[in-house]
Fold this protein.
Amino acid sequence: MANTETTYLGLSLNSPLIVSSSGLNSSIERIKSYEANGAGAVVLKSLFEEQILNEVDKLSQYSDYTEAADYLKHYVTSNSLKEYIDFIKEAKAAVKIPVIASINCVSASQWVTFASRIQEAGADAIEINVFLLPTDAKKSANELEEIYYTLASKLTGLVSIPVSFKLGAHFTNPLNIIEQLYARKVKGVVLFNRFFEPDFDIENLKVIPAPIFSNAADIRNTLRWVGMTSHLVPKVDVSASTGVHDGESLIKMILAGASSVQVCSTIYKNGAGQIAAMLKTLSTWMDHKGYKKITDFKGAMNYGQLTDPTLYERSQFMKYYSNYE
Ligand SMILES: Cc1cc2nc3c(=O)[nH]c(=O)nc-3n(C[C@H](O)[C@H](O)[C@H](O)COP(=O)(O)O)c2cc1C
């Protein structure tokens, strides 16, 4: 019988499948059901810097006094945080699987102090989700990337639990970013986050949110970068995210070298039972292939293992397509 135990960020997981950061993990009952269905860990919904600042701004409208505004800012920040801290404690008491906290931030400022409170509450790791939408044409990519590095240095200097970064898919050189984060003691990266995107309603001339769930076809960009990172920056643990909807995709990500695989859209669509179904596909496939444990095949198809690694590269795709006339 296949053994699906694995390690991620130095944590022991019963299985490589993690329920990713979202509202799915904002109920203790649901977290328990994910554990019962075999999830290896959960990442709690992000504590949003933006969300806290918005709350502060709204409340500040009612006060013209700077001192009062400062007080409100402190009050709201500590209360949002208190709810989050209490939830971490509740989740830790309710399940045995690792509970990873998540912070969504746009700066390297006050967030850093939150991290030590999260560690004290018992979180097993912290996933940092930076969302910087560049709106200043004069700012260079280097200046923006520096925010990631400052954050990484500050956080890993402050907490002893593992820190991972959940990255967006659009860097000029993701491998260098990951290498730089590793140099600042970041243990893992989640490839990739999927952000809310705008769409247009052309009847009412309104900006509307695009569909929030991924499709199974979205797996491909994730697969390429998981496969490249696991070979080219091998000391960093990679957690695959975006487009993993079934057991076959879970297997592909581990073959590409993922230490863990995160799922969100498919759980929203199919419920907690999807975790057990995906893990069943994994263990049946492992038995069929004669793999006893995850490390027997982890990374077996990454960028370094293929006789023709250019299959990962775009130039090969162009050649491939040009044969179709
Ligand atoms: C409704 C919803 C809420 C989400 N909330 C968060 C969040 O709070 N923090 C975060 O890092 N990612 C969040 N995500 C992104 C997911 O964690 C995940 O990275 C993304 O959906 C891609 O995975 P998937 O293809 O399995 O859905 C959210 C996604 C959805 C659909």
